[in-house]
Give the backbone structure.
Amino acid sequence: MSELSKKQQIVSASDLLFYNQGYAATSFADIAEAVQISRGNFYYHFKSKDSILDAVISLRLANSHKLLRDWESHSPAATERIGCFINRLLVKQTDIIRYGCPVATLNTELAKLNHPAKTTASMLSTVFRTWLRRQFCLLGEKSSADLLAMHLLSRSQGAATIANTFGEQKLLQQEVQLMHDWLYTYIKFPAENTATPSLA
Amino acid sequence: MSELSKKQQIVSASDLLFYNQGYAATSFADIAEAVQISRGNFYYHFKSKDSILDAVISLRLANSHKLLRDWESHSPAATERIGCFINRLLVKQTDIIRYGCPVATLNTELAKLNHPAKTTASMLSTVFRTWLRRQFCLLGEKSSADLLAMHLLSRSQGAATIANTFGEQKLLQQEVQLMHDWLYTYIKFPAENTATPSLA
DNA sequence: AGCTATATAAGACATTTGTCCTATCGCTAA
DNA sequence: TTAGCGATAGGACAAATGTCTTATATAGCT
């Protein structure tokens, strides 16, 4: 027996396949082959394909929380933590160029399918939004923390999108640099930004 | 008979359905119902589903070129033209919130499917990239025109993505405002940006 | 009217899909 | 050893999909 239970194996294999191929394009046959079980046997572990999706979203939520906790424990300063968020694009650059941002692509796919789980899936984005907002709060930007969080989230997702579209590593690296510059500039002159945050 | 040929009707109906539901999730049955023909009859007009996709991409390319020509003829100044590009997000905000950016979502879907047409589809983004680059060239930024173009493209796609994810109109409007601010700031101090463009 | 080319309908076809059922395997506890 | 139960295999099933074939309708021309 392997270390993970078969159910966990199914979830993590589906996690990867949903990211690489998309949810709708991933069939039970694909997952069955990946975890080496017969196709008809899924319904012992999961009652439907949708319930696998739910499990995958739960797994991703847990992984996201773990990631954020890691950043918090490794970086005492909020600025540095936000830097970790930006650098995530570089750490995952190979995957991002090939498959895009895992959070964004799942959200857009489920939105188009009008899938019941789309609300739950958007929680994946909300987790980062909330976390970033808290970091900006720690920097003293209470009134515009959410705006700043969304701005950074927006830019990171845009960078992932164009990197995926054009397949150019350099584009991703350029945008990451610009986000760091923006953060640095912002931290440097917090006084100017309290009234109307000049994110430009 | 209607004004458009049946073949054109199929293409424009597919264009809309591919945007609203995604390419893979749109079946011949869906298109057949939309244009009121029988399902088995497609192969008189198109030899495969992929060839419909090719036709849709061609249509979108033509529409994009037309859009860019319109902006050029209505706005003599390059700054104003770039402003038109940014405002496109507001003009299409209802659709964008529901279905995301038509260009980006098609690209990411085809990338995941590893579809043969993904290269052709990325031309849709390239058209805007090239056009924006030319506008920045007209502003005297020859050396960093492509970087500026990609930066703006990235931010617009990011804004579309988060608007689609969170379904919040305000987010889109905020990001649009920030892009205008960025453009304004950039135009105001072109001298500072010639060496190292401070997009932050 | 009759002929021809274009256009459309209707359905067959194999394949794949998600779902569900049943039989069997292998382990553990009595 | 045997009974019981969790786990798995294998296949049945209807529905849907892309594809292809054949027959019919329609319009224009002679």
Q: What stands out?
A: The mean pLDDT of chain A is 92. The radius of gyration of chain A is 19 Å. Chain A touches chain B through 48 residues (CB under 8 Å).
